[in-house]
Amino acid sequence: MQEKINSLFGIPAPDAAVIHVRDTVDGPVPNIDPNYIFEPMVLKRILLWLGPKTPRKNIFLLGEAGVGKTSLPLEVCGRLRTPVWSVSCSGKTRFEHLVGAMCLVDGNTKWVDGPLTAAMRAGGVFLANEITRMDPGEQMRLVDILDQRSRLTIGETGEVIEPAADFRVAVTGNSGGHGDESGAYAGEKVGSFAFYDRFIKIKMEPLPEEHEKALLGKHAPGLPEQIRDGMVSLARQIRESFVGNGGALRITISPRSLIDWGKLACEYRLMSGLDPVKDSLKDIILNGSPEEDARVVMEIYENWVNGNQP
Ligand SMILES: Nc1ncnc2c1ncn2[C@@H]1O[C@H](COP(=O)(O)OP(=O)(O)OP(=O)(O)O)[C@@H](O)[C@H]1O
Ligand SMILES: [Mg+2]
Q1: Quick one: which of 198, 127, 139 has its CA closest to 168?
Q2: What is the pLDDT of residue 80?
Q3: N or C: which end of the chain has fewer CB within 10 A?
Q4: Of ligand 1's atoms, which has the minimum distance to the CA of residue 39?
Q5: Where exactly are the structural domains of the chain?
Q6: Of the ranges 72-76, 189-193, 220-224, which one carries the lowest mean pLDDT score?
Q7: Ligand nearest to the CA of 37
């Protein structure tokens, strides 16, 4: 079935621009958030990667925490009814965890596909979050699968799997695979250039200010517009000072935290005895942070509520 890109993704596009949406699906299709906002230039790249003309079938979405790296492929695939098999990686993730294992099923030992094998077989996306935390040696065991003419041989059964034509690999990370120099993201590893050389690399940034204001409006409609706009400005100011961005602050207000701050402030407005915006700022972002950094954020906040635009 063909669908119009403009109505599917809520972006400006001519009515003639259509895209194929699957009728039948063999696998887990992500649920969608109808409030999701797509940046047209980022979306175009994702659609190209999913289509037949992509020069590389692997994409690496990198950027700060909560910027939308994981949700972007899920939201796109949910709308296209493309299944996604996802996993979160750590230093302990092994190639075998992704490929599958022999398991005891009803008293018999049987091969059970892992998320990577399932995606290769059925077609769709294998999404490996935080791949930059995986052991570089284990990452390198994936290179055969990442190559254009890949095949997967399952040692335990001898089966050779030819990937479906629409098999794609998406990975995410807070660093670019060269380790984290900022100190903000413990556990980021230095990987092999040969591994990352096999990906299209998309650096994700927070939405433009106007879109971020619109997004907060959708998630926190109970707050006055002026308050929401101030929250967005404050968040964007704090992000500029974040260590991950070359500043000195060890905390930040990610797009994720901004949305949750707005939602919690809406709820706190209905509860007496709370300062809705201030207390939700503390509960979502500041509590547990290094004292000095929390104080800097509170100063900017107080400055704002005392009449100065952040
Ligand atoms: N463009 C957007 N429109 C709507 N919501 C968004 C957008 N970008 C991010 N979000 C929301 O922000 C939250 C965090 O997004 P996501 O989990 O994709 O971030 P991430 O970059 O993967 O973070 P992490 O580095 O912590 O894994 C999600 O709830 C997501 O829906
Ligand atoms: Mg993520």
Answers
A1: 127
A2: 98
A3: N
A4: 1
A5: 2-203, 209-305
A6: 189-193
A7: 1
